[in-house]
Amino acid sequence: MSNAAITGPGRSMNPDALAHGVLSGQRRALARAITLVESQRRDHRFAAADLLERLAPHSGGSLRVGISGVPGVGKSTFIEALGNHLIDQGHRLAVLSVDPSSAISGGSILGDKTRMETLSRREQAFIRPSPAGRSLGGVARRTQESLLLCEAAGYDVVFVETVGVGQSETKVADMTDMFVLMLLPGGGDELQGIKRGIVELADLILINKADGDLAAAAGRAAADYRNAIRLLHPRSLGWQVQVLTCSSLRQDGIAQVWEIMQAYAESRRENGEFDSRRSAQATAWMWSETADSLLTALRTDPETRRRLPEFEAAVALGKLPPTLAAQRLLSLFLEGRREAPARHEQRIEP
Description:
By secondary structure, the protein is of the alpha/beta class. The chain is built from 13 helices and seven strands. The chain has a seven-stranded parallel β-sheet, sandwiched between helices. The chain is globular, with a radius of gyration of 22 Å. 36% of the residues are buried. The model is unreliable at 1-10, 100-113, 133-139, 188-193 and 342-350 (pLDDT under 50).
């Protein structure tokens, strides 16, 4: 492992120094480490791989909770309420909040940290908004690496807040221990308005904003969902999906939510599913990274790039079927690799 300092925007990105800072629980070091793993620069990718190798043995000690919900359901308010409760109970909380990306700058356009004012001021909390970019699944491209960094920094609970709910916003369930789906009361078409797939992934369903005029509607929505989930196959064996109502503004039901999260984690550990799911997630992550690395290598190969316009034009004109074009493009790339001297390189981010 190299100790060479990689220069970032006016700052040193030395993996050894960053690793020491992260393990010491320094929030500034953790923020810079996440910036490093999110960077697309080639030299930063090498340094990020070095950093992750150093910190991986110190990760894995948190409860990872994915939180998704329709826009306006109050995810940030809920996370702030539950986060303050957790800190009061002696926990350290990291929140990885994925925001929609600006079409102009590519940066985060909502800034969830500004909407968690009391939580962001607490020393035991770390909140990191990241732009979703072109990634699907409701998470950012490097959310999984960021999660490991937060664990290495000593945060024993990590929330991953997704962009919102849609057909592809389920990837967060593949990187967390528990998946929480938040819904609004009184929407009129709760059961029809949410894709069945994401409901099937939920370990806990919360009907938020159950206060004032919406309290009765929240109760009816919860009853509807309790009936509906009986018809669905649960994601976790031996766990009955819970449906609760809560009010983040009034703190109603917040303590009960945490009790259920703890009960869920304990039951999963007892039957071995907690560790087996993490192992499966790690393996799936490896193959995802392998596919991304191969695609990056193909796109950056000089001969492939030279011939790519030719293939694209043939496909666009209907002279060559896309399937056949893909096969020939891959063959061209592999042939060039066999002829080139063997080189062992680390993964490069596209």
